[in-house]
Amino acid sequence: MTPHLLLGIDTGGTYTDAVLFSETKGVVAKAKALTTRHDLAEGVSGAVEAVLAKADVPVSAISLVSLSTTLATNALVEGQGGRAGLIMIGFAPDDLKRDGLQDALGSDPVLFLPGGHNVHGGETTLDMRALDEALPALGSQVSSFAVAGYFAVRNPDHEKRVRDRIREVSHLPVTCSHELSSKLGGPRRALTTLLNARLVSMIDRLIGSCEDFLKARGIDVPMMVVRGDGALISAAEARLRPIETILSGPAASLVGARYLTGFDSAVVSDIGGTTTDVAVLEKGRPRLDADGAVVGGFRTMVEAVAMRTYGLGGDSEVKINDRGLKARLDLGPRRFLPLSLAAALHGDAVLSVLQKQLRAPHAGRHDGRLAVRTGLPDHLASGLQPQEQALYDRIGMIPVALADLLVTTSQRATLDRLVARGLVHLCGLTPSDAMHVLGRQAQWNGEAARLGLEIAARTKDGSGQPIAASVAALAQMIVDRLTRQSSEAILQACLNEDGAGAIDPAVSLSVDRALKREPGIVRFSLGIDRPLVGLGASAPVYYPAIAEMLSAEPAIPAEADVANAVGAVVGQVRTTVTVFVTTEEGIFIVNGAGASERFVDQQEAFGVARRRAKTMALESARANGAEDPAATLREEIDAPEVEGSRKLIEARFIASASGRPRIAHG
User: Fold this and answer.
1) Mean pLDDT per 10-residue interval, the chain, length 666 residues
2) Quick check: bond before 333 cis, omega within 30?
3) Diameter of the chain by CA atoms?
4) Are 615 and 659 contacting, i.e. CB atoms less than 8 angstroms apart?
5) CA atoms of 390 and 83, how far apart (whole Å)
6) 81 with 422: CB under 8 angstroms?
7) 438-466 pLDDT, tens per residue?
8) Of 363, 76, 376, whose CA–CA distance to 206 is shortest?
9) From the DSSP assignment, how many helices (H) and strands (E) are in the chain?
10) pTM of the model
11) Over the stretch 535-589, which tens digit does the pLDDT of each residue have?
């Protein structure tokens, strides 16, 4: 009899991984396929078909599918996402200046409506006339909406009414702030809601692609998605709240690292194509960031692992600063399509451009760089400005040299905006190309990598000398730079955990001398007090040198390349619900997880709040696919003593329910 198997899928910026996992035998088989952003189903099907073939098992053996992804994290780090309209109810324009909301909003439209509630849930009259006037035009300019109401966590009625009106008129996805967080802090809740709205179409496409493929393949089983805190949620919930999948991939990697190594304490660093994610494992569990996950420079209200995400990976842009007497290399934070991968996908279209540029007597400022459409559906390119549309029309599914594409200086900024929208890939030199030239990677086109490095090696520094003596020397410089930047990123994360975040490893002379092992009268050294777990497909080629630089014990599991996919299937469903009790003129008001209720007796209000929190947490866990969840409750009561008696300010009843996901029994 074939045992029940769990299928874990991780969709990253470059690769989609798949593992078949048995709760008794562990990893049964693993496989990879390139992530195909234009149609995510291609990458998913490629990885799943390959892992099924390796394991030689029927699809009927699969009883659960669980998905983790770095797509949301990558999009926020790279400043990508759909255009969203922000509707603020009861807020003033000055509120945009708080918590980075203005920066996050950028050029996306915002509309202010009278309305909102107070701390006890009492309302100010909602006026939707401005919304009704703006909706017909707004609906054609954005791909989704975000709605944030003043004190909506105490009474979400106005958010719901605005949501229903938007859906009725525009038929576009709408995210409400009360659906994402129960915490106070309107502008940051609005920021979180805005980012969620931008991610809706991306995560919806990913989950839809997976579900379509699985259905076509006859795999009719529950599907889960890893949340940013490592817990699992149902695919339906992830579609509504994609912001909760930021740090999904990193969280899954931590869960996977704990399972694969058995370490209770470790520094875990996961290098992908776009980002490096660093976290500390303590007593077998990752620490959660109580203040909310920080991604792409924005602090959200999403509870997630205390993970530091850096725009540094195998596919990071190589930037050459040739203005000083000695040239300097820097990597990231943008992801490029490596030249070796671009040529593997498009062949002569890439090679001929690089060969032509190399034959030219003088180097051009855009040599070695090309642009190509990502292949997103046309409706996701809505709202482009005329100059953006004109440039987008000149870029096709075959890479075109930037030297031919960009005629004026201003077009570079226009191209950057298309890249930020996720509509265009830039192709250029990356550490992955350097690894191909050094013979440490060989999965793509090594000739394109060599041509790209030859073009870059022609660059001269401020003294008029070539920046490298040979192509191989430049390749090693790039890899050395990745080793150093990775070490700085890991060190910064560890210093933050130690409360020494004021030390910046990138500028500290002491840290520089310690990492370089430079001799001197004063000897500087540093090290990490626990193993450094390196994860990611390229971990075996990068992390031995990184661990050596940090004087750390390297630990690279055999399944390091699919740790995220492993983490996706060994996690648990976990939900949390908070119910509040406040007081006004002797009346105790219960808010959260249902309609507002008022009581004259405090203990009666507390009893209702406790039952409501536990009941809703269990219902939510079951709705998210938990088989037999168990609930716990904790209470936080703010009741200072005033003139000899306690006066209630606020009581919070926080229920958590968890359990293993429900599996199909065939």
Assistant:
1) 78 86 89 82 89 91 89 70 88 90 89 89 89 91 91 88 93 86 83 84 82 89 88 86 79 89 93 88 79 76 81 93 80 94 95 95 90 83 88 95 92 92 93 96 95 93 84 96 95 88 87 88 90 93 95 94 90 88 90 86 94 94 89 91 80 92 73
2) yes
3) 88
4) no
5) 19
6) yes
7) 999 999 999 999 999 999 999 888 778 88
8) 376
9) 20, 31
10) 0.73
11) 988 899 999 999 999 999 999 999 999 998 999 888 889 888 899 999 988 899 9
Q: Are 479 and 438 in contact (CB under 8 A)?
A: yes
Beta-carbon contacts of 208 under 8 Å, excluding residues fewer than 6 positions away, are: none
Is residue 561 a contact partner of residue 31, using CB atoms and an 8 Å limit?
A: no
Residue 641: exposed, middle, or buried by beta-carbon count in 10 A (0-12, 13-18, 19+)? exposed
| CA–CA distances in Å: residue 533 to residues 83, 277, 396, 480, 614 | 38, 12, 41, 19, 37
d(CA 556, CA 37): 29
- Does residue 270 contact residue 536 with C-beta atoms inside 8 Å? yes
Exposure of 8 by Cβ count < 10 A (0-12 exposed, 13-18 middle, 19+ buried)? buried
250: Cα within 13 Å, side-chain hemisphere: 35
- Going from the C-alpha of 375 to that of each of 13, 337, 382, 418, the distances in angstroms are 15, 14, 14, 12
Separation of first and last alpha carbons in the chain: 12
Q: Is 563 within 8 Å of 535 (Cβ atoms)?
A: yes
